[in-house]
Amino acid sequence: VQLQASGGGLVQPGGSLRLSCATSGFTFDDSTISWFRQAPGKERQGISCISGRDESTRYADSVKGRFTISRDNAKNTVTLQMNSLEPEDTAVYYCARGCTVVAGKIELYGIKDWGKGTLVTVSS
To answer: To 10 degrees, the CA torsion angle through 56, 58, 63, 64?
Structure first.
């Protein structure tokens, strides 16, 4: 099983970035994929996930309305479009297989596999 996040970089506040998660080694169509992020000195936070066949989505309140998750089942990839970026969005972003939501919060447990992260820095 492999998941690899890419697309991170340096962007000014108010700017946009598009992250991609390339996957292999499992049945992608049936799998829920999620995005997490971890800022320096903070816990890893679930920010979005998208389910397999019905492509239902979940977002953390901190990114709702600014980030959009989507998937391409033909290419086994998931994309996270990030708009109106803020300095508080600075973090290493990870994609993962699985998603557990409890009381509206995307939890860390229940993740089957993690990918390597990609760094997003929002700064002027």
So the answer is: 70
Check if the beta carbon of residue 89 is closer than 8 Å to that of residue 35.
no
Q: For 7-18, what is each residue's pLDDT tens digit?
A: 999 999 999 999
Question: Phi then psi for 30, rounded to 5 degrees?
Answer: -95, 0
Question: What are the backbone angles phi and psi of residue 89, rounded to the nearest 5°?
Answer: -85, -5
Q: Which tokens in the block code for residue 112? A: 């089957």
The answer to whether the Cα torsion of 63, 20, 95, 117 is positive or negative is: negative
**Looking up tokens 């979005």, which residue turns up?**
48
Contact 73, 28 (CB under 8 A): yes
8 Å CB contact between 2 and 114: no
Distance CA 3, CA 124 (A): 30
